[in-house]
Q: What sequence folds into this?
């Protein structure tokens, strides 16, 4: 199983974790690389399988009023 790092702004965390959880991905959460950022180390068979979920989470975050 491969691992991919997804770096997001801290306020997007709940959006990303909900989408990754619903899709069945396993991940670990780390601080950084900068303040107010979170790195998610996601287990995936291929980047292509993860990419649509990252795109979906980004789109949802862009529409969110949380930022």
A:
């Amino acid at each position: 199983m491969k691992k991919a790092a997804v770096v997001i702004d801290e306020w997007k965390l709940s959006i990303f974790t909900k989408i990754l959880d619903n899709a069945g991905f396993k991940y670990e959460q780390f601080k950084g690389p900068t303040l107010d950022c979170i790195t998610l180390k996601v287990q995936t068979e291929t980047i292509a399988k993860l990419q649509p979920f990252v795109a979906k989470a980004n789109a949802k975050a862009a529409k969110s009023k949380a930022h």
